[in-house]
Amino acid sequence: MSLEALQFYEENPIDFCEDLLGVELDEWQKTAFENLYNDRFVAIKAGSGVGKTVWMSLATMHFLATKPFSKVPTTAPSQHQLEDLLWAEHHKNISRSDYLSNLLVWTQRKVAVKKYEPQWYAVARTARVSPGTHVAEGLQGFHAEDNLLYVLDESSGIPDDIFPAVEGALTGKHAHAILAANPTRLTGYFHAVFTEPRMKGMYKLMTVSCEDSKFIEPRYLQMMEARYGRNHPVFRIKVLGEFPTSDIELLFPVADVETMRNNELIDMRGRRDAIEIGVDIGLSTSRSVMCIRKGLRVMEWRTYNLVGNTADAAGLTQWILTAINAFEPSSVKIDANGVGGTVFGNLALIYPRLVHPVIGQAQPAETKKSRFGNLRAQGYWELREMITQICSEFWPKDLIDEMSDIRYSMPNGRIMIQPKEKMKVSPDYTDAMVYAFLDSDVCVDKYNQLVIPVYVGNVNDSMTRVNPFTKGSSLSRSSGMVASSKWSRMHG
């Protein structure tokens, strides 16, 4: 490329994107480029799917291609956001352009100008603070005299201690910064940039609504409004690109769910955390869901979908037994309402010390009775308090959808969870997760309180109501279900 062409594209990033990458920009993306180079520091709160990640990648490509010996330190709350999203977009942009393909070399965490890799690059570094300090790991050492562009993706979730390291390098006249996020949190640096008078004027502020983006299908907007309503926190964050007015009624704050989704996986090698299983039993034709966890890491999700209108207690029992034999958990907590009571009873005949029944309307733990209205409220609230520490390789979309709309109230000063019949979707995945993390010691006292129907033979045979733990019960432990030998001797 000639020097004249390079100078032209340096001053015209929109033409750079259209001519060299074949990208048609949305109007807000054009404005964002103008703000970045006129004001140098830009903060963007946006709805989901408007092209925020696309634009940050384009801005990175333009900066590297037109600013000599430039550096683009890039950070986000999680490795997933950097490598799977933003860095994947870098790869796509480089691949679609002959010019960029000849200019840049891409690796999983670095994009550099060929032959100048140590001096001219963009680098991905997860936003972390050194343990016991306030030092931002990986973001030190960039100098104000460089052509410098800081890119902070999902800034709402980045720890506040990260930002002083960024601000320290932004004093030079060639320094630029992009802060962008879904506005999930009502606290922190990103929120302060938009709301606090002391920070007024530090960044050029932008709000990008899905309603103003050509990339968003009208059907998506209609679905989100019909489901949540325009004042719901999820609609404000995900559609309007606005901070929520309040999370007070939502059981799981949107920001905490986002943190959970983006947590890096805990390395389980050498750890002795027990495996625990939670099972939500669906009613009639509903699905049943199983959550399997080891410590704070959710290992696997399983579902059992019923066919027809018959509650398949025998099939559900065998489904759970298969998981028990595969994972050898320390406890299995089962929704013991309705047909779930039958499933629990079947399993209790085989593993009386392993399986535990969960009755949501039962009393909470003795020490928690003044705070929670029932066991369901206690289990849900305790999950709420730990979700920012939980990780998983896969989060079901249905779980995230359920969590985004579960509400709580405090009648008589005690926490109660919204009844299922008032929820827009049944919280099958959330219930299973609650049970998986519920302390088995707070489950119903199965020896004294629970009398449930147990199938003696096949699912269509008659059943009898018994307490499976009563001494001298005539029910046979050899109910046709298969248990593993060595491990079953420990738990049977």
Describe what this molecule looks like in 3D:
It contains 17 helices and 20 strands. The chain is an alpha/beta fold and 492 residues long. The chain folds into 2 domains: 210 residues, 3-Layer(aba) Sandwich (Rossmann fold); 217 residues, Nucleotidyltransferase, domain 5, CATH 3.30.420.240. Helix 12 packs across helix 13. It starts with a helix and ends with a helix. About 10% of the residues have low confidence.
CATH topology of the largest domain: Nucleotidyltransferase, domain 5
- The assigned structural class equals alpha/beta
Average pLDDT across residues? Answer: 84
Poorly predicted parts: 130-136, 446-486
Gross geometry: elongated
Q: What is the count of β-strands? A: 20
Oligomer state of the chains in this structure: single chain
Give the C-level CATH assignment of the largest domain: Alpha Beta
Sheet-strand content, in percent, reads 15-25%
- Give the count of structural domains: 2
Return the CATH architecture of the largest domain: 2-Layer Sandwich
Distance between the termini: 75 Å
The major β-sheet equals: 8 strands, mixed
* Radius of gyration over C-alpha positions, nearest whole angstrom: 27 Å
